[in-house]
Amino acid sequence: MPLQTILTDMLGIEHPIIQGGMQYVGYAEMASAVSNAGGLGILTALTQATPEDLRKEIRRCRTMTNMPFGVNLTILPSLIPADYDGYAKVIAEEKVALCEIAGGSPAKYVPIMHANGVTKVLHKSATLRHALKAEKSGVDLIEIVGYEASIAGGQPGDEIGLWVALTLALEKIKRVPIVASGASATGRQLAAAIAMGACGITMATRFLATREALKSTTIVLSKLSNSTRVFKNTVSKRIREIEFDPQNDDGLSFDQVALLANGKRTKKMWQETGDYDDAMWACAQSVGLIHDIPSCQQLIERIVCDAEEQLDLANKSVFYRRRSKL
Question: What is the pTM of this model?
Fold first, then answer.
């Protein structure tokens, strides 16, 4: 039996699971597979070279599924100069079910999305202060991201895990439904999120190990106030060696790690070589919970079934006693 929540009703999906946006992975093949399995698949806007290329990918995805799907728009103008307004215009014109906005403020784009009468806006909030601002901007959903997630752009002081971040958000935010995000990969975690008051979860890393996807983690670039959780491999270890070299105690420039950390190297890994040891790529701590490579359909069905079982067991494990009238 599907787990029905505010999230499933709002988006017209079967299960309260959203596939997180993933650069160079969020293509139509992945998004459609997740949507066909009952979750909400997500295309990644900046994986496409131009807004018109995104339009083509949205339309290609519609040939692969008749279920709702969304688009992630990560706004990082200082790192990735792009036509963000153009991408947003295409998302709105194509009337996708959800626009997941990360990195920047959603305020500018909420009216554009809502004008089409279809697209809901979710803001990916790494801190409570960002979530409160997103609430004021009129978003439909807020995604609370714990530090154990495949974070990017983390600032000093933001190192708060989902267990605490979600609790704080649920205490402070009352008008907007909250989605839990951060190293989620199991039905037990989905059950915990729902029990706490969230309406669902977002998963990204777990979907990398599915048949439809094109893989211990570490934090890099923290000295540049751009903390990013990535897979622990030869490249990320070398980046950390450079970061924490005593010779760089007085300051580190991105140029010193650019050849190791640039996106072109990561894109080549995903699309050409498949050599997971030869690039820096984002990865959550949920990698430690991955033990097999199912299809998206098998994965989502298993997670929901496990969540239902956990919620049932939790209900049965609580004993209610009558209070004495004395």
Answer: 0.84
C-alpha to C-alpha distances, 156 to 94, 164, 257, nearest whole angstrom: 38, 17, 20
Helix axes 187-196, 296-316, angle to 10 degrees: 50
Q: How far apart are CA 292 and CA 300, in angstroms?
A: 13
Q: How far apart are CA 229 and CA 238, in angstroms?
A: 14
Q: What number of CA atoms fall less than 13 Å from residue 223's CA on the CB side?
A: 17
Segment 170-192 shows an average pLDDT of 95
The predicted model gives 306-320 an average pLDDT of 86
**Average pLDDT for 172-182:** 95
* Residue 229 near residue 217, CB atoms below 8 Å: yes
Rounded Cα distance, 128 and 55, in Å: 33
Q: How far apart are CA 179 and CA 18, in angstroms?
A: 9
Q: How far apart are CA 240 and CA 218, in angstroms?
A: 9
Q: Nearest 5°: CA angle at 209, between 203 and 211? A: 115
DSSP label of 324: P
CA dihedral angle for residue 31, residue 149, residue 231, residue 190, rounded to 10 degrees:
-60
Q: Report the alpha-carbon distance of residue 170 to residue 5 in Å, rounded.
A: 16
3 state DSSP class of 71: strand
Query: Interior CA angle at 152 toward 81 and 114, to 5°?
Result: 65
